[in-house]
Amino acid sequence: MRLEDIAAGMSIEGVEPDRIVTVSAVVPISDDSRQVFYKLPDGTLRERLITRGNEADISVATTARPWAFDGDGEAFQLAAEAKRIDLAFLFDPMMAVHTSNVEPLPHQITAVYESMLPRQPLRYVLADDPGAGKTIMAGLYIRELIIRADANRVLVVAPGSLVEQWRDELFEKFGLEFRVFSRDLEASTPSGNPFDDIDHLIVRLDQLSRDENLQDKACAIPWDLVIFDEAHKLSAHFYGTKINRTKRFTLAERLGTATRHLLLMTATPHNGKEEDFQLFLSLLDADRFYGKFRDGVHKVDASDLMRRMVKEELLRFDGRPLFPERRAYTVNYELSDQEADLYERVTNYVKTEMGKADELDGQRRGSVGFALTTLQRRLASSPEAIFQSLKRRRERLEQRLRDLKLGKSVPSPAEVLWDEIPEDDDDLDALEQETLEERLVDEASASKTIGELEGEILVLQALQQRALAVVNSGQDKKWDELSRILQDDPHMRGPDGRMRKMIIFSEHRDTLNYLNAKIAGVLGNPDAIVTIHGSVHRDERRKIQEMFRADPEVRILVATDAAGEGVNLQTANLMVNYDLPWNPNRLEQRFGRIHRIGQVEVCHLWNLVAKETREGDVYFRLLEKLRVESEALKGRVFDILGEVFDGTSLRELLLD
Length: 656
Fold this sequence. Notes:
- This protein is α/β, with parallel strands linked by helices.
- The protein has four domains: 3-70, Roll (SH3 type barrels); 95-313, 3-Layer(aba) Sandwich (Rossmann fold); 326-333 and 476-655, Rossmann fold, CATH 3.40.50; 337-473, no CATH class.
- The protein contains 24 helices and 21 strands.
- Strand 11 (236-239) and strand 12 (242-245) form a beta hairpin.
- The relative contact order is 0.09.
């Protein structure tokens, strides 16, 4: 203790052996000495000359003075503030709301603070409609758990197209720094396992599900919270009594056992099959949902494990509806004579080949059936799609015939690609679906001999000529309906008379190219149309989406389902389903691109369907799936198929 620091009133040690003395007065003698007058504990007064050489022996007394207030004030303030923050949630039960850059809506607050936080541990499906802001709810939940010291290690598993969006939103809105897993990140971490070294991580679903080594690293970590976005992709199916698990489903099972809290996020938890829904819920509670669903015996009740609110139930704080009205219509049209003739001929070809496929082994039969069914769907899509499909198929089979005649060993694509065929459309992302369909439609054949292959090629040559004649005739009733909507429907024009923005969804890339050219002819401006399909790179896809949102000259986006996952396009309020997917989930995901928070206009959806075609069968299957979904989700399913223009119900139309 320095001589200069000794002052009256201080209690110091080192002046008297084993005693604490209280300084009464200090008289400077020189620069290096002080005369100190002090009092002993019994009150006796004494004095002593203390020099610079005694400094090391003298110190402020700390024993026997626990309530002294002469400590470091700044350090005490920091410690008190840290404790206040640590206990803040006890006094502010919505701490995450007040410390985030968001203004949550009523349904988002109730989801986090009434449905999720009270559940310990959380095993839950957040299944609100598309566009309800589920990412905001997840961010609030993560931040609240961290504030309450209930979570430190958090893993978000999302489709590849959404990981950057997750990272940006969690940082910008909640101040949470998450890293996106990459091979470079893996190589740069100290242990080589970023799942162990980094507490907050986002990883691509398919990257993790397809790499068992990576999966082992992730599942070896005791996570506090794991979130799966677009969780309907975690699918499994019963085949008899056996469960066929996709790689994504297996990943979810493994991570589910490695985490305390598990949150599954999807706007479409039910695919129309009750037994698949039960398998999905088994990710949350394997014991409760064990075994195969049997209709009439089991009833899947997920009310305590899942929250689902449709858009019509969501309100603002003042009680006004959060979303504008949404309306769906079905536009029916009849094929021209030429189109009907082509439809009948292609259908007969498909039936003939299906009959031949029935004689094949199970794997090849399934592949050929998948290819032929897809061919029928392309027939209903557009003349261009069926023409190009028939042409490519003929060319591929001719190449196969040449190889066989040369004695080359040529494995059947139907056998090679069997393992890639999904049990359900949702098992593949949009790019995988497009790629698989292209390869199977072009190559999978039931022909077993050179003679059968030559006969099939002759049939395809004739069909190709018929399809070319339809293309050259310019007769396309389906396009006529879309053209009428684009040019004559009053909803196409805003109050200023300008054409509104519209999204047109198709299942097939050939139809996209066809529509691009046709719409450009109607609008007179090719630059007013942009296109997205599965082969468009993720960065380029984002640029096109931003162009559609921000460029006033761009009015039409023509897209496959590659644009239907996690994308916000509420600058448009009009949509057309030029083709229909098999899965009703994809219909809802499509409409959810425009009908989401921030939309202020009434949203209109047109579904185009030809009478007396395969599309009618698709519609009937969709209707049945929607009915099953509606029962399981207690009616919380919007009738995405909509009203039929002539006043007849869609179900009646299809049953006639």
